[in-house]
Amino acid sequence: MKMNVRHRLSASPDVAWQEIFSEAYSEAVTVHTGTSSELISETVKDGKRLRRSRVTLAKELPAAAAKVMGSKHLVYTLEERINDADHTVQWRVLVDKVSEKVKASGVFKLVAAGEGCDRIITGEVTVSVPFIGRKIEAGIAAELEKSYEATARFAQAWLTKQAQPL
After folding, report:
1. CB 5 within 8 A of CB 145
2. How many domains does the chain fold into?
3. pTM (2 d.p.)
4. How confident is the model over 111-155, as pLDDT tens digits?
5. Which residues neighbour 142 within 8 Å (Cβ) at sequence distance 6 or greater?
6. Cα–Cα distance between 5 and 122 in angstroms, integer?
7. Is the Cβ–Cβ distance between 56 and 35 less than 8 Å?
8. Which residue range forms the structural domain that includes residue 121?
9. Which H/E stretch holds residue 163?
10. Are 159 and 19 in contact (CB under 8 A)?
11. What's the pLDDT score for residue 163?
């Protein structure tokens, strides 16, 4: 199932990128979403940062998805190839225990738009489980889109707060 999500942010791509990838923002969004993320590794290769993180979502999965995943909570490894120069992240999710059945990957980018920028996330979720794979894909995609909506609102509030004079 394909995903395509776009949100307008009221900051330039350079400013939004710097804030979204700051340690302070990462800590604040983790608290806000209840999602835990642990950095496994980060290296630089060919001018791009390669980062692996272990992510656990706080929200419980629907019963069908939990059965396939073998857990009530989605736990996965997030692999990111971060290109700071063009504000782009290629991402891939490796889901514990079912990486051969569940695949998710895509691109996150910031592009100039008006006086701000658009945060664009495209991707694809594929679940290879007979009979219920498409339903699980739709559920995962819907949850991801809700999550992206919530983090976009948080990012906008964060950027607005950072722009306030002290």
Report:
1. yes
2. 1
3. 0.83
4. 999 889 999 999 998 888 888 788 878 877 777 788 888 888 999
5. none
6. 6
7. yes
8. 2-163
9. helix 133-163
10. yes
11. 64
